[in-house]
Amino acid sequence: MLLSGTDRRRQLITAGVGTVLTLVMGLVLFVGFRIATEMRANIAALQTASTLQTYPDDITRQLASLRDRLEARAYSGQALEDLRGTVRRFDRQLKELNATGYVHSQELTRALQLWQEYGPVIEPVVSFNGQPYVDSDTAGSTLSRDGRTHYAEVKRAQLFATDNSRTLQVQLATLATSLQRDASGAAARLRTLLSIGVLAALVLAAAAVWFQFTRARHERAAREAQDQTRDILMTVREGFFLLDAEYRIGSVWSDALTHMFGRKDFAGLTFEELLKNLVPASTLATATKYIKLLWGERAHENLMKSINPLGQLEITMDNGHGGKETRYLQFDFHRVMGPAGIKQVLCAVGDITSSVLLARELQESQDNANAQLDMMLAMMHVDPLQLVSFLDGAETGLKLVNTILKEPARTDAEFRKKLSGLFRELHSIKGEASALSLSSIASRVHTLEDIVSELKKKAELSGNDFLPMVLKLDELLAHLRSVREMAGRLTALKEGAHAAPAAALAAVPAPAPVQPAAARAPQQFARRAEDLVPTLHALAERLAQDQGKRFKLKLAGLGDVPAHYVGTVKDCLIQMLRNSAVHGIESPEIRQALTKQDVGVVSVAFQKAADGFELVFEDDGAGIAPDTLKAAAVRRQLVSEDEAAAMDTRTAMALIFRPGFSTQDGISMDAGRGVGMDVVARSVYALGGKIGVSTHPGRYTRFKISLPAGAASSAVA
Amino acid sequence: MKLMIVDDSNIMRRRIERSQQFEELELVGTAGNGVEAIELFKRTDPDVVTMDLTMPRMDGIECISLLVALKPEVRILVVSALADKATAVEAMEKGANGFLNKPFTDRQLNEAIAELMR
Amino acid sequence: MLHEQELKTFVEGTTSFFEVAAQQPASIGSPYLLEGTPAVHEYTGIINISGKREGVVMFTAPKAMLTVLLMKMQENDFSHETMRDLVGEVANTISGNARRDFGREFVISVPSVLSGQLKIPQKPGLRSFIIPINWRSHSAKLVVSLT
Fold first, then answer.
1. Phi, psi of C71 (to 5 degrees)
2. Nearest CB neighbour to C28, from listed A363, A405, A464
3. Which subunits count as partners of chain A given 3+ CB pairs below 8 Å?
4. CA distances from C99 to A283, A364, B61, B98, C108 (A)
C-alpha cells in the first residue's frame, strides 16, 4: 500500500513520455510534409523558370527568321506557326508559374511586366492569318497589302524583341537562381528538421528506457520489501496483526498467531471472535471495551497503555488432543495514525506462558516443600522425648530471633547490630536439628542462616532486606508446629490406645476420663513446664556470650507452671531475659566501677498466689529512670508536659506497657528496657492477668506478673 | 469552566481544591458520594468533574454513566486508588476522559487536568 | 504461604503514599512476627481480603505522625474526622496497589477506619507480620495478617 503513490507517478511519467513522443514526431512530420510540398513546387517552378530562360532568345530568333522569309518572299507560314507556338507556350508557362503562388519574387514580377510590354508588339504578329503575298506572273511574288502591314509589324516586333529579350532572359535567369536557392534552403531545413526529430525521438526513447529501468528497479525493491515483510511475518515469534475500524483483523498477520490461537483464518475475524471461547466472559467484555476505546481519540496513547487489561491474558484452548491447554498472552496495542486520525491499530501478541509458568513453578516448589513432611516424618526414628525437647528449644530460639527483629531499627548500624545475634540463634538450632537428622528443619534454618550471611555482606541494610527473613522465620515456625502435630499423630498410631504416657497426663489438669488415644497423644508433644528450665539456661548462656555480659540465672518454681500458661510464661521470660541481658545487666567493667558484684543476677520465681499465680522477674542491672521515660513520652506526644510532670514514678514506669510505646525507636535508645514489654503486657492481659514494674536506677528492675487461676486456654499459639 | 470534585475523603477533596491552579476552572462544588454528586451536578452544571470510584451510597462508575447521560460533553477525571486495569477500562468506557491513580503529586494532578481540558 | 512479593506489594502501597502525598519517602523498619494480638495506635485503616488469601491488612498510626503528615500535605484541619480520612486514604492506596498486582486472585474490601482497639479474627493458618513504617521521627505499623 505504501507503493501505490509511487506506482501512480510512474504510470503518469510513462504516459507523458509517450504523449510527448507522439506530439514531437507529429510536429516533425507535419512540418516536414509542408517543407517537402513547398520543395516540390519549388523544383517544378525551377524547371519551368529554366525552360523559360531560352524563350526570349527563341522569340527573337524566330522573329528574325520570319522577317527574313518575308523579305525573301519565301514561305512564312511555318515560321509564323513556330513563333506563334513559342509565344503561346511562353505566355502560358509564365502565367502558370505565377498562378502556382509559390513564386513571389521580384524577378517574376518584372519578367511578367516586360512580357506584358511584349504583348501589344507581338500580338498583331502572331494573330496574322492573311496571305502575305500576291502572285503575279509579271512581277513574281510580291507583298500584298496585308503582307506589307504584317512585314512592318514583324520588323517592329523583331526590333522590340532584340532590344528586350536580353533583359527578359536575365530576369528569368535570376528567378531560376532564386528558386534554386529556395530549394536548397528548404532541403537544408528539412534535413535540420529531420535531425531534430531523430534526436528528440532518441532522447524520448532514452527517457522511456530509463523510466522503465527505474520502475523495474523499484518494483524489484518493492517485491523484495514484500518478501522481507512476509519472511518477517513468517518467522517472528510475536503475533502481529492490524485491526481496522470495525475491529476486524486485516489481511496481513504473522504466522506466530497460528500457533498462539490454534487457527489459520484470521483475515476478517473480529477481535471479539478471536478471543471468544478462550477467555471468560467478563475478560472478553473488558477487552472489547478497551479495543473500542482505542479507536476513540479521547484517551492518549500513554493513558491507554497504562490501562491495557490484556497485559497478561490467560486463555484456555483445546490442545488438539482432546484436552485443554492454558496459555498466557501479552497484548500490546499501537495506534496507526493516518491523515484523518486513527487508521488502524497494530496489535502485538507475545506468548509469555513459559515465564509465567516458571514464576509459578518457583512459587509452587516452595509451597510443595511442606508436602514432603509426611514422608520425612515416616522415616524419622527420633526419640519422642528428645523431639519434644528439641522443638521447645527451637521454638524458644526462634522467639528470641523474633525478639531481636522486634528491636526497632532505622539506620544501617541498628540493622547490622541484629545480625550476629540472629546468626548465633539460627546456627545453634541448625546444629541440634542436624544432630537429630531432622533435615527438613535443618535445611529451612540453613536458608535463614544464608539470608543472614548475605545481609552481612551487604553495604547498606534496610528494613526491606529483612522481609524475606521474617517470611522464612514464619514458615519455619509453621513447619515446627506441623512437625509437632505430626509427631503426635505418629506416636499415637504407634502406641495405640493402652499406652497413655503418665507424664503427659500429669501435665494436663482434669483430663476427660475417656479419651481416644489419637486425640490425647499429641498432648505429649505440647510444651512442658519442666522443659522451661534447661531452655532458659541455654538461652541465658547464649545471650551472655553474645552481649559480653556475665550473669547468673536463678530459676524457682517453674515446674509448677500450669500447661496452659507455659507458652505465655515462656514468651514473656524470653523477652524479659533478653532485655536484661542486652540493656539491664551492665558490662563487667562498669559493674566493677559501680562497686557491684562482677557477676550479675537475674532471678525468676513462679509461685502460687492467693487467687492464682505470680511470676516475678528481677535483675540487678541498671534499672530504668522514670524521667527518661517521661521525656521520651512527651517528645513522642504521647502525653503532654503537664501530664508528665504530674506523673508519679509508678505511672511513669507503666508507660512502657503502652501500646507501641517501646517499639517506637528513639525511645528505645533511651529506654531499651521497655522493648517488647507492650507485647508482654498484652499477652498477660489476654490471659486476664496483670503486670507491674518497679525499679531503682543503678540497682534493679523487677517485673511482677499475676495470672488468674482458672484460665483454660492459651492465647498464644 | 466549572469544576466539581467528587470524593468521600475530605482530605482528598481539599487537596484537589488547593492544587488546581487553572484560572479557567471555577470550583462550583464538592460531593462526598454519588447521590450527592448527581444532585449537585444538576444544580451547578459543571464542565469538569474529578471522580473517586469507591464511595458510599453510589459508586463512581455508576455515577459517571449518570453524569454522562445528563451532559454528554462533560469531562471526567477518575481519581482513584483502584489501580486494576478492568476498573480503568470500565470507567473509560462509561465515559471518563482520564485516569489518575491515588496517591498523586500536585504535578501529576495538574498534568492530568491539563490533559483533560486539552 | 504468604510470598515476599505479596508482602512487598502491601509495603510499597504504604510507603508510596508518603512519598507521593507528602513528598517525603518513608522507610521500613525491622519487620517481625506478631505474637498474640497487635498493639494498635490511635488510628487504624483496615482492608479485608478474601479469595486466594483471607485476612486483613491494616495501617495503624499514632496521632502525632498523622498530624505531621497532614501538615506536609498542607492540610490545616486536624480534626478527628480528617485523621480518619487520612488513614482511610492510606488503606485505600494499599488496597489499590494490591488490586493492581494481584488482580482477580484477591477480593479486597473498601477500607474501613477504626480509632481504638481492634481484634484480628483468629483463623487457622493465619500468618501475621508487623512491618514498622518509619517516616521522619515517627513510626507507624503495617500489619499483614493473611492465611
1. -60, -45
2. A464
3. B, C
4. 16, 22, 17, 19, 7
Put simply, whether C96 touches A (Cβ < 8 Å) is no
Fold of A239-358: Beta-Lactamase (3.30.450)
Q: What angle do CA A623, A626, A627 make, to 5 degrees?
A: 125
- Determine the Cα–Cα distance for residues A38 and B72; give it in Å rounded to an integer: 84
Handedness of CA B93, B96, B97, B98 (dihedral sign): negative
Regarding the domain delimited by A380-496, which CATH topology (the fold level of the hierarchy) does it fall under?
Four Helix Bundle (Hemerythrin (Met), subunit A) (1.20.120)
- The whole-number average pLDDT for the span A394-399 is 87
Nearest to A678 by CA among A538, A579, A549: A579
The CATH number of the structural domain formed by A524-716 is 3.30.565.10
> Is the minimum CB–CB distance between C31 and chain A shorter than 8 Å?
yes
Mutate which: B7, B17, B101, B102, vs C, most C CBs within 10 A:
B102
Task: Note whether C89 contacts B84, CB cutoff 8 Å.
Answer: no
The string of DSSP codes covering A127-171 is T--S--EEEETTTEEEE-HHHHHHHHHHHHHHHHHHHHHHHHHHH
N residues, chain C: 147
**Rounded mean pLDDT, A101-130:** 78
Among positive and negative, which fits the CA dihedral A572, A575, A578, A584?
negative
B30 touches chain C (CB under 8 A): no
| Chain B partners (3+ C-beta pairs within 8 A) | A, C
Q: What percent of chain B has pLDDT over 90?
A: 31
Question: How many angstroms separate the Cα of A307 from the Cα of each of A333, A346, B86, B113?
Answer: 11, 17, 8, 18
Disruptive mutation site among B10, B11, B21, B57 for chain C (greatest number of C CBs within 10 Å): B11
Residue with cell 540453613: A446
What are the strands, taking DSSP E only, across B9-117? 26-31, 48-51, 75-80, 98-101
pLDDT tens digits for range A286-341: 888 888 888 877 777 788 888 888 888 888 877 766 677 788 888 988 888 888 88
**Global pTM exceeds 0.90:** no
Helix/strand/coil percent split, chain B, to 5: 45, 20, 35
